[in-house]
Amino acid sequence: MLSDFLVSHPKKPFFQLSQSEWATAVAQYPELMEDNLIEYIERSASASIQVDHGAYFDNDAGISQFTRLFKMLPFKEAYKNHLINIVVDNTRTDSAKEFSLENFGMKLGTRCPVDQIKYTDDKGQQQKLDCYFTTGKNMGKSKGLQILAEELKIKVPAKVTLKDLKQLLSSHNAFQNHIAHKSAKSKTYIFLTSLSTCSQKTSAVRRTV
Predict the structure, then answer these.
(1) pTM across the whole model
(2) Which of 28, 147, 179, 206 fits as disulfide partner to 188, beta carbons 3.0 to 4.6 Å?
(3) Containing H/E element for 120?
(4) 36 contacts: CB under 8 Å, gap ≥ 6
(5) pLDDT tens digits for 79-116?
(6) H helix or E strand, kind and range, residue 128
């Protein structure tokens, strides 16, 4: 999945800094070199993720992408002497989905209501738990609660029942908020109005495909 900024400007169809512009931007904002778990296209605010591996453009990813854009925009020489207006149209089509332990099966390949669970661990760190296999011979199959428990380092008795397994998992942080995050769809319009010729406008749109 790709989230980029299309620009109606004679220089380039996509927003991207030149090598020299990027060097100047990084000198002021060294954090631009960090990807923050998002794979950015070189010297741009465009980002890509691999949806088959449980990644989605959620609200946090969108905020990170816009923060990066706002830091980079002042260094784009072609946009100098322009007023920049950004309009965001965000649609939360499936950005969050409620789930319950009661909707999970115990064994591999059984029922599973969500693709991935995001949660905060005991140290305050954000964690992700894939509910489906993304590689190997079981790719595409649900893991089931028994395997999820193993991945969460929960000790499971050899002859545990589904009821007891749900009880064990119910106290884990991964199953406390009952929300699994998925992708959000949005469009962002960037309008550049020349200060010297107010009738001339350059527009851009952020698309997620």
Answers:
(1) 0.47
(2) 206
(3) strand 116-120
(4) 64
(5) 888 777 676 655 544 445 567 888 899 999 999 888 88
(6) strand 126-130
Rounded CA gap, 61 and 183, in Å? Answer: 10
Tens of pLDDT, residue by residue over 12-42, are 666 788 899 999 999 999 988 876 667 788 8
Quick check: 128 and 138 in contact, CB under 8 A?
Answer: no
> Residue with structure tokens 């990807």?
35
Tell me which DSSP letter residue 174 carries.
G
Contact 84, 74 (CB under 8 A): no
Distance CA 50, CA 158 (A): 36
Helix (H, G, I), strand (E, B) or coil at 97: strand
DSSP conformation class of 123: T
Sequential DSSP letters for 177-198: S-EEE---EEEEEEEEEESS-T
> Whose CA is closest to 94, among 168, 186, 203, 200?
186
The structural domains of the chain, with segments of one domain joined by +, span 2-90+186-208, 96-181
Q: Is pLDDT of 146 > 80?
A: yes
Query: Token pair for residue 42?
Result: 């070189």
Q: What is the DSSP string of 17-68?
A: --HHHHHHHHHH-GGGG--TT-EEPTTSS-EE--GGGT----HHHHHHHHHH
What is the Rg, in whole angstroms, of the alpha carbon atoms belonging to the chain?
A: 22
